[in-house]
Amino acid sequence: MTHTRKPLWLSLTALSLAVSAQVAHADERESLEALRQTTIGLIDALVDKGVLTREAADAMLKQARARAEAAQAVAPAAKPETTAAGKPVQRVPYVSEAMKAQIRNEIKEEVLTQARAERWGVPNATPAWTDRIKIDGDIRYRHQGDRPSGSNTAASAYQSSVADTSQGLMRAPEFALSDSNNNTRASTNDDRSRERLRLRLGLTAKVSDEVGVGVRLATGNADDRVSTNQTLGNNFNKYQLFVDRAFVKVEPADWLALNVGRLPNPWFSTDMVWSENLNFDGAAVTARWLQTDATVEPFATVGAFPLRDQAAPTRGARWLYGAQVGSAWQIDSRTRIKGGLAYYSYQNIAGREDLDYQGTNASTYVAGPSFGQYSYPQGSLGQKGNTLFETNPAFASLQSNGLPYYGLAYEFRPLVLTVSAEFTHFSPYSLLATFEYARNTAFSVASFQRRAGSTFAGVNPGGRADGYHFRLGFGSAEVREPGQWLATVGYKHVGSDAVVDAFTDSDLGLGGTNVQGYILGFTYGLYRNTSLGARFLSSKSIDSPINIYNPSAKFGVNSLQVDFNVRF
Fold first, then answer.
1. Helical packing angle, 97-117 and 26-48, nearest 10°
2. Which candidate, 471, 473, 447, places its Cα nearest to that of 461?
3. What residues contact residue 73 under an 8 Å CB cut-off, 6+ apart?
4. Residue ranges of the domains in the chain?
5. pLDDT tens for residues 115-129?
6. pLDDT tens digits, one per residue of 395-446
7. How far apart are CA 32 and CA 9, in angstroms?
8. What pTM was estimated for this model as a whole?
9. Strand pairing report for 256-263 and 230-231
10. Which class is 131-567 in CATH?
11. What's the rounded Cα separation, in Å, for the pair 106 and 111?
């Protein structure tokens, strides 16, 4: 016997009315009358709760009675039975106690099920819109101690290199900053301890089956896109929150997704190329080939992201375009591998000789409207590590933040291979392995010499176009529950011009490229979604952090990070 949910009320009401009209036995009449009254009482209670209007309830009861009468009307006419004495025979349908209990339970279950589904005034029921919105986030408190190597080249050497106009090359301009008295503003030798806080608060909403939106706020500062840390010690001043994400996701089919706005990293990658805190402005489309056996899951992603809008004649547009293909493989029940090959192309990001100024000599030069458009702004964009050159060496009187205008010596079109594997042979623990290799296919000394102008004719600025990253982890793939843990060890070797230093990891070597070193980490779950972790990072520069004219310069630093992290 099958039922539909909504007609069950009417059917049971009709049953109680029809049966009670036909029976004659007193006890059965009382029992079935109680059933009828229970049904009517339930409907009245729904009216009292405001779930049903009185008109709707009356119409429901009227419809039930009409059904009962119709059922009686269509019944075939039969000759009334009589006793031997000629009196009519009265037959009483038998309804067992089990059947009565079943009817009562079915009424209750059906009403409660529909009430929850339609958000009636039932305990534990919530408004329908709450099912479409999810709020999550995390708060992290970090103690960070940085201990530079005692053999680091002093900041004064960086300043001297900038002052020498015959050089015009640099890889760490931030160490050359000076104040109005020409005193160094940065240090390459002093220890530093910081207490830092990170807050991220996100909201995602499902607008329809095909469309969703995401918004996330985070601490940090407007000039640092690869960190959301807020350093404590501002005399109890308040912190700023920034829009970290704001995007729309459209999924017209199960295998296709489009993200537009300020969106999460769409690439399968490690933090050697893209910092884990980096979000992208623009659009990305991902397609997945769904397999019935789910052992192979190919995917492809393409994206376009504006880095700087065009505002003629002061500056030209800069863009990042990318494409990645890859697949995940379920080798067996305990082995899963994922790989991806990506190609990224930066448009108009490389520096050029800047001749937009007028005058007869350096003391009388005046900047034109587009002067500085080829620069790679330090502090507001770059970290450190990429090879830079002065775009206006003859115009030393025009400086930016106490430094000449520097541009990227090389163009960037990195080809990146990323592979990860998870082995669960040691259940409940997992062995996690990741490898990434990047090669800047646009690395060309000849191209630099053409763009940099006559000042750098025949000059090879040096640098390296390759980078690689290994990482091993053992423990829980994700530390969420108390007692779970994860131990990791990693090694990075990132050449100065393998990737753009503005968007890579901000921790090893205090951020940027031209760095090599290892990372040891351990995370332990204290409570649900609450963990304590520690990382030790030891790094040193690969090539001179100044330039080819200072080949013996070096920079290294050891960092300790202790994190208390709570997710919600």
1. 10
2. 447
3. none
4. 7-125, 131-567
5. 666 666 555 656 667
6. 766 666 667 889 999 999 999 999 999 999 998 999 999 999 999 999 999 9
7. 16
8. 0.78
9. unpaired
10. mainly beta
11. 8
